[in-house]
Amino acid sequence: MIKNWAEDIKTKTKHMNRDAKAEYIMNYYWYHILLGVLTLGLLILGIYHVTWGKRKTEFSLVIVNQDINYQRDQTLQDGFAQYSHLPAEQIQADSDYMISYGDVQLKGINESSYEKFFFGWSAGAMDAVIMPKSFYDYCIEQNGRFLPLTELHEDNQTDVLPYREEHQEEIYLQEDGVSMGVWLDQTDMSEYFMSNEQDPYVLVFPTTMKHHKAAGKFLNYALFGGQ
After folding, report:
1. What is the spatial distance between Cα 214 and Cα 138, in angstroms, rounded to a whole number?
2. Residue 141 CB: number of other CB atoms within 10 A?
3. 136, exposed or middle or buried, with CB in 10 Å at 0-12, 13-18, 19+?
4. Which residues lie closer than 8 Å to 183 by C-beta, 6 or more apart?
5. Is 131 helix (H, G, I), strand (E, B) or coil?
6. Greatest extent of the chain over all pairs of C-alpha atoms, in Å
């Protein structure tokens, strides 16, 4: 079809100068040009979807009510990628979650973060979350559930807890004798985050998370700094 258009234009404009040819093409073939541009755009979009668009996230970390720090987030992504051998572009760390809840009311924040967080939770879009203990309690009140750490697995091991008897309550968030999370200050990642003695931060794993094996790797990465 394009060949026919080109031959038709060549025949009808062979006696015209350059300006007249351009005017003729724009007047009589503008819709053909538009159709060609749209077709090319759809082709590029299809190629992107087949190649780059298929790069799925294999691990997602959400950080609640810390400073929004993209450089720190990238450092965590790169460090965990090196430790887990997952492609860096398939790991996501996102600190753009400033959330008001209960008695905690932050000023000057985007309230959409609240909806964004719980929508991501229900969709299984977050594998691990760093959050204040008060927000953990709030999530429990909202019927949110977290995965016991013993249910995470790495390399088909069903238990990745490195500590058994000593200091469990110092290291792990305990609920009825079950380890539900890790106190962030006890991890090697703590240097990247602000501390709050009145409302300490915990690393926890929602039950809706999808990537158990990667989450198990991240638990060990958090505790040992990838060693």
Report:
1. 26
2. 10
3. buried
4. 170, 171, 172, 173, 200, 201, 202
5. strand
6. 93
Q: Per-residue pLDDT for the chain (227 aa), expressed as one digit of tens each?
A: 544 555 665 666 666 666 666 666 666 555 566 666 667 666 666 554 444 444 588 999 999 999 999 999 999 999 999 999 999 999 999 999 999 998 998 887 777 889 999 999 999 999 999 999 999 999 999 999 999 988 886 544 544 555 544 556 678 888 888 889 999 998 989 999 999 999 999 999 999 999 999 999 999 899 887 54
Segment (H or E) for 224? helix 212-224
Residues near 81 by Cβ (< 8 Å), separated by ≥ 6? 87, 88, 91
Buried b (16+ CB within 10 A) or exposed e, 174-185: eeeeebbbbbbb
Residue 219 DSSP label: H
Tokens 């959330």, located at residue: 99
Nearest to 203 by CA among 140, 115, 135, 123: 135
Q: Which residues, at least 6 apart from 10, have a Cβ–Cβ distance to it below 8 Å?
A: none
Q: Using DSSP, how many helices (H) and how many strands (E) does the chain show?
A: 8, 6
Please give the model's pTM, rounded to 2 decimal places: 0.72
* Mode of pairing for the β-strands spanning 201-204 and 178-183: antiparallel
